[in-house]
Amino acid sequence: MVPAHFFEEMWYWVFLWALFSSLFVHGAVGVLMFVMLQRHRQGRLISVIVVSIGFLGSVTGAMITSAAVAGIYRVAGKNMAPLEALVFGVGQTVLTLIISFSRILATL
């Protein structure tokens, strides 16, 4: 594949990887929640709402951080290889998981 030269290309590829990795994580968690709460009266609805809100929040964050990464690369005058976009996109999801499961935000 050809390295990305323009801001829009860099942002798109980093965001796309973050989107798909986040979709994979939220899909797996959604299926788990749906299975665990299938006998609960409102459990199915609650699981869909919680997964939807979590996914929208992570996609919004991925848009912003992908733009920041692409902007830094563009200002530095560097090209972004496809593997770098993969690392940045999946890395955003991994860092979101680490922060979500840690108690860092509760201590602030």
From TrEMBL:
It is a multi-pass membrane protein. It comes from Falco tinnunculus. Signal peptide: none annotated. GO terms for biological process: negative regulation of canonical Wnt signaling pathway. Pfam families: Tmemb_170 (PF10190). The chain crosses the membrane at residues 12-36, 48-73, 85-106. It comes from the Eukaryota. This is Transmembrane protein 170B. Keywords: Membrane, Transmembrane, Transmembrane helix. Belongs to the TMEM170 family. GO terms for cellular component: plasma membrane. The keyword Transmembrane helix applies. It is found in: Membrane.
